[in-house]
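Section 4.2 – Deliverable D4.2 (structural model, holo form)

The reporting period included a commitment to supply a predicted holo structure for the target in complex with flavin-adenine dinucleotide. Inputs used:
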Amino acid sequence: MKKYDVIVVGAGTAGCLAAKTAAEAGLDVGFVDRKPKEKIGEKICGDAVGKHHFDTLGLKYPSGDELRSRIEGIKVYSPNMEAVYQIEGKMLYGFIVNRLLFGQRLLRLAVDAGAELLDSTQVLEPILEDNAVTGVLVRDIKRENKSRLRSKVVVDASGFLAILRRKLPQEIGVDTEVSNEDVEACYREIRQLDGNAANPDFCEIYLDQNTAPQGYYWIFPEGETRINVGLGVRMAEDFPRPKPQLYSKVLSKPLFEGSTLITGGAWYVPTRRPLDCMTGNGIVMVGDSACQVNPIHGGGMGPSMLGGMFAGETIAEALEKEDVTREGLWQYNVRYMQSYGAKQAGLDVFRLFLIQGVDDEELDYGMKHRLITEDDFLKASRGENVRLNITEATRRLSRGLGKLSMLRRLRNAARLMREIKTLYKNYPDSPKGFVEWKKGTHELISMAKRLLARKQ
Ligand SMILES: Cc1cc2nc3c(=O)[nH]c(=O)nc-3n(C[C@H](O)[C@H](O)[C@H](O)COP(=O)(O)OP(=O)(O)OC[C@H]3O[C@@H](n4cnc5c(N)ncnc54)[C@H](O)[C@@H]3O)c2cc1C
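Output (structure tokens):
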């Protein structure tokens, strides 16, 4: 039976970059997806991706049919729509892509680098031997037969379903479950407008707890006359179903009068910091399977590609050293945590502030009077520290009399964001310091939940 160096499970953005990077390093890569080749890349998504991700990864910008729109920035609307933050700047330039064509390009890059694609092949479970993953059990969807594929390392890039992660034994040292409270249930449609998009150069984000509890809804332009519109709600207790919410509260807006449905569907996105540990003996998690998504806006294409690239590089190094244990693969955790993971963790705290620390009325007031500023959003989105020095706090205080407790929570959020980022920047260099690091991280998140919650 053939044994690969690496089997990558899932040919989404994460898997393609992992397979491409590993194949470019000269490894023998098996690349498995349950979809037929021509459908790979299709995904329920907002389709927005920052330009800076392409620069970091050395990928060409989308062009031709793959490019739907160029984006200058984001407009964030307060719940009562009285305040609009227009947030622009280099880090917010981006693209709306044709998701299928973008995915097909990434797939081609992986296959051209030498990865062997096994499409229409569903992965059922990991093969485990002596507490290590040594391959996967698969079902050929067309021929209806099952077989085993063997490899030295397996990459779980199966997206939110995390088909392998969820089936790992506890001893492997990876958290197998993600709390529903850290997941947004989404429904999205692409619609052809009767007229023109109001803001063809901006992604619009609407914060409104009545419409999208503990989430938001978005209106993204796909050219002059097409819109990618969707809504996400946090899967906390009794959350409303996103599709009826979108139909009753968003598609009822004048912009959508006479519009027609091109395609629609529901899916999930994890919106938290990355998994504490993304490696086990013989296995690595990347992309949504490792919760590599920006917790504030749910953007996961960029970080998942970065995770895929880091995973491919680390696996090549581990194979060179002939050590594919959790320890041998550990540098993947370090690389990801010190770069995007630290930003994600900071934003997870900012998310806790937004969902627990302010209600619609406070947000309306806070945005209108600039108690929370565009700069806060911009800095948070860039992963920079949000700072409120004494003068700044006093100035905001004078604008926000009566909103003292919200300002206190914002200040606590800013402090905790800095602290958690420092923790992630100092992610342990080997599994030795991990238990202590994890304890510190969880204590900080518990503190954030306590300090940032509004008193009812
Ligand atoms: C509604 C919505 C809107 C979003 N908007 C944006 C946005 O605007 N910008 C952005 O950057 N991100 C956005 N995201 C997040 C983004 O789509 C994901 O974070 C990103 O696609 C993660 O990529 P991935 O490769 O980890 O997973 P996926 O893209 O989900 O790929 C997983 C792959 O694994 C395959 N697979 C799954 N199970 C199996 C199995 N058992 N066997 C074989 N193959 C399997 C699937 O077929 C798929 O090809 C959004 C997500 C949602 C749900």
